[in-house]
Amino acid sequence: MKEYGDKRTATGSVYLKALGKLAIELNLELLRRERLSFLLQGLTAIALLPLLFTRPIEAWASHYFPAMDAFYASTTGWVVKFGLMAVVWLSYILLRNIQELDVIPKPTGRKRWEKRVYDWPWMRWLVHRLGPVTGSREADRMIKLLKDTASPLRLEWLYVQRIVAGGMAFLAVLGMFMALHAASRNQILYAPVKPGIMFGQLSPEEEIKAREAAALDRHIIDRVKEVKHRTEETVMALLRSESRVLNKDDQLRATARRILGKLTRLDNQYVKWWKALLAVVAGWGGYAMPVGVRMFQRRMRQMEMKHEVDQLHAVIAMLADMDRMSVEHLLIWMEQFARVFKEPLQTCLLHFEQGADQALAQLKEDAPFVPFVRTVEKLELAAQSLPIREAFDDLESEQAYAQEQRKQEYEQLIEQKAGWGKWIGFAPMMALIFGYLVIPLVIVSLRQMSVYYEQLQRIQ
Predict the structure, then answer these.
(1) Going by C-beta distance under 8 Å and a sequence separation of 6 or more, which residues neighbour residue 289?
(2) CB 406 within 8 A of CB 28
(3) Is 12 helix (H, G, I), strand (E, B) or coil?
(4) Using one digit for the tens of pLDDT, what is the confidence trace for 210-233?
(5) Which candidate, 193, 195, 243, places its Cα nearest to that of 219?
(6) Going by C-beta distance under 8 Å and a sequence separation of 6 or more, which residues neighbour residue 348?
(7) Cβ count within 10 A of residue 56
(8) Taking the C-alpha atoms of 26, 27, 33 and 38 in order, what is their torsion angle to the nearest 10 degrees?
(9) 59-98: pLDDT as tens digits
(10) By CB distance 3.0 to 4.6 Å, which of 25, 132, 190, 441 could disulfide with 138?
């Protein structure tokens, strides 16, 4: 402000008034940041804690409830574990978006990977097939979303992100099902054969017998695979020739049925149609995720936009009384203080020399936030005819009311962000406790109780 000099008005020195307003703004910003940081501190660590507790919880549940060991080793158990990992990852991403909203992204000289991928001919063809037609309502909606989040991406690059995310999600889920089938086959072949359903754990002697029974089952299964017609008699004949322990027909028949059951389960270990459908749904979810994250970012940024417009009003109020202040210099000062509207203001300044009216009109299109648009409209009046002081004469008259309103809005903004952060931060822990321990334990217990009830019915 030294280049513009000081000015005496009826209310005192313009320079001293500007210093007072600047001190108020700095204090408000520091208090807001400190309180928000205090309310959100530790939430990222809380969101990542389930990654450390999955194994201890699994070991504890398997030790005190042996049936849970089979659940965690089953396909359902692995699906629950992968779902928990997805919840942790998504919560971490959203928390980072909440906490890093005020950080200005540093420009890098590296070429964006989306641009490199878009240069591939087949990807360009795919983007043009899946992306919206230029000028359509969907294209306008996506472009507006990119502008609202100040994203450096072009529309084509956004769809490159969506296609890559969708393809990775589809392949990840499909690969997960194939890996689960491999784990299930290994579990079927190598899991110790337990004598029925039991609450406690096997003794060392029973554990040895269970492993020997599993080894016998594997050997018979390898031989039965070569037989076209698999019947109980065929399996019993093989058992008689291989096992000297099983002499009674009822023991042979029970073992044969168990082996045939394992064969049936092994034959069912393939990617069924509903699993392929789930992979497609996961691919669609991955395809929609980049848009969903940006919609969340826009929601978070909308909470900040009114706050930043109030800060820009304070900057304008400090500079409006300067005699040599022009609209272009005012935009330069606004660009230096802006975060959310920084990129639109930079674009406006680049085109300002070619025409103030056109540059300001483009600024309203690039940042279509209503309070900010009203400020730009006053700048248009100042650029055409009115002095800057008269264009913004309502800032001083409404200063007291605006400060009280801003304090109330800051409280609401902090509470909203803290509420979002707490819900997101504690979601993985709730998923760990209920989704990975409580609900599976209840389901396994109910299954065991139903089996015991059936056994009691047979005894009676």
Answers:
(1) 162, 165, 169
(2) yes
(3) strand
(4) 788 888 888 888 888 777 677 778
(5) 243
(6) 331, 359, 360, 362, 363, 366
(7) 9
(8) 160
(9) 888 888 877 887 887 778 888 888 898 899 888 888 877 7
(10) 132
